[in-house]
UniProtKB/TrEMBL annotation:
SUPFAM superfamilies reported in the protein's UniProt record: Complement control module/SCR domain (SSF57535), Spermadhesin, CUB domain (SSF49854)
Official protein name in the record: Sushi domain-containing protein
Domain CUB: 1-63
Record InterPro entries: CUB_dom (IPR000859), Sperma_CUB_dom_sf (IPR035914), Sushi/SCR/CCP_sf (IPR035976), Sushi_SCR_CCP_dom (IPR000436)
PANTHER family: COMPLEMENT COMPONENT 1, S SUBCOMPONENT-RELATED, CUB AND SUSHI MULTIPLE DOMAINS 3
Span of domain Sushi: 66-126
Species per Swiss-Prot/TrEMBL record: Bambusicola thoracicus (Chinese bamboo-partridge)
């Protein structure tokens, strides 16, 4: 085990500690599931070294994503669609007085890199 308040496990969403922090943990109660936005996660263990406990054991399983990430919202517009699974679509509409630039409908497809992604760039309203 690790010593609460003195030993910490930091998990980052990316290749190093400059990546966004997913979480910091100081006891044996890690979440059941931790996901990264890519195939990189960086783990850093920090201890004050004052006592010698057994440490920790970590197991992981890589699982391919089956859906796209949230494409986000647009300024001066709204989005219809909250399902991001492969084959799903989201459609954007502009508020009154604004004109859509780009494609209004995006579809979640399997990319050439083997990862789900949106087939088009996010539109904007001008």
């Amino acid at each position: 085990s690790i010593e609460p308040n003195y030993d910490f496990l930091y998990i980052y969403d990316g290749p190093d500690s400059n990546s966004p922090l997913i979480g910091s943990f100081q006891d044996s109660k890690l979440p059941e599931r931790i996901e990264s936005s890519s195939n990189n996660m960086h783990l850093a263990f920090r201890s004050d070294g004052s006592v010698s406990f057994t440490g920790f054991h970590l197991e992981y399983k890589a699982k391919l994503r089956e859906s796209c990430f949230d494409p986000g919202n647009i300024m001066n517009g709204t989005r219809l669609g909250m399902d991001y699974k492969l084959g799903s679509t989201v459609t954007y509409y502009c508020d009154a007085g604004y004109v859509l630039q780009g494609y209004s409908t995006l579809t979640c497809i399997m990319g050439d890199d083997g990862r789900p992604g949106w087939n088009r760039a996010l539109p904007s309203c001008h």
